[in-house]
Amino acid sequence: MPDSTAAAVQVEAHGGAHNPALLHHFATEEQQRDASNLGMWIFLGTEVMFFGGLFCAYLIYRLKYFGDFGAASKSIDALLGGTNTAVLICSSLTVVLAIWAVQTSRRVLMIAMLIATMLFGLVFLGIKGIEYRDKFVEHHVPGASFSFEHVPIPGHPDQFANPRHAEIFFALYFIMTGLHALHMVVGLGIFTWLLTMAWKGRFTPEYHTPLEIGGLYWHFVDIIWIYLFPLLYLIDRHP
Amino acid sequence: MTEHTVSEHSKSPLTTYFAVWGALLLGTFLTYQAAKLDLGAFNAAVALTIATTKALLVALFFMHLRHASEKLLKLVVITTLFFLVILMALSMADYATRAWS
Fold this sequence. Notes:
The complex is a heterodimer of chains A (about 240) and B (about 100). The radius of gyration of chain A is 23 Å and the shape is elongated. The N and C termini of chain A lie far apart (about 75 Å). With about 240 residues, chain A is mostly helical. In chain A, about 75% of the residues lie in helices and about 5% in strands. With about 100 residues, chain B is mostly helical. The radius of gyration of chain B is 20 Å and the shape is flat. Chain B starts with a helix and ends in a 6-residue tail after the last helix. The chains are: A mainly alpha (about 240), B mainly alpha (about 100). At the A-B interface, helix 2, helix 4 and helix 7 of A face helix 2, helix 3 and helix 4 of B.
């Protein structure tokens, strides 16, 4: 018992009537929140450059091997990709609903929306897994067993795609969607932590910064997918 | 009581959130359907226009950039886009003007 009494005295002398979430080096809660937000946006800026290099590589090779990229893109299941886009959009909605719930003191709704976000994230990864499995079965994974023979180029039924060029498309496909999937896994980790914090009642209408910046990360990963979907799945779909 | 509820409801961002969600799903459907049409070189332009519109909707409404008041934050966002344009534009200034064999 003396331990907890001492701790209680310390807290009182230390924080007084302050919000315990307010750290020493910030003047106000608003300043603390703005600083966290700014830090997250700077991190997202580095992420844009990180993915930007891959998008640039994609752009260069797509201009160079347009027909081969079209043929390779057509072999991916666009319906699965489209479903995944819708799944991610729904998860972004549940993220903003979770933040709205905490702002209006609806704890149960906040927890439900966090769980829903994570479920959507898992569904996304599951569908991604099915897609990857198909590519392994079809020998479309770059490497020794890669095979892309006698696939006609869309719009030019008399010409076959060059397998070496199609392999570059699949390399970009696996690196870009794989890196995106890795971000989803990290996002699921962040949301597990947010869910634990929410469960313990750490978030209040006044203080829920982790939820906001975790949400920013999730939305960013959604935006990356919004570009990946048309660029990788929908190059040349018309018959 | 009722007046309070009504005024609180009118401030609620839920309508915006669901409208944006609907617009994003519609955009996904449109981009999927547009890819099936043969528009020649415009296929890519249509796909990228829809993708950018969707990305802007997410950034402005879900990530709350629309109500961002901090100038530093705006500076970070603009700097990011600026460097992305430099990356793409300077790379393409090289590759797009090469004589491919």
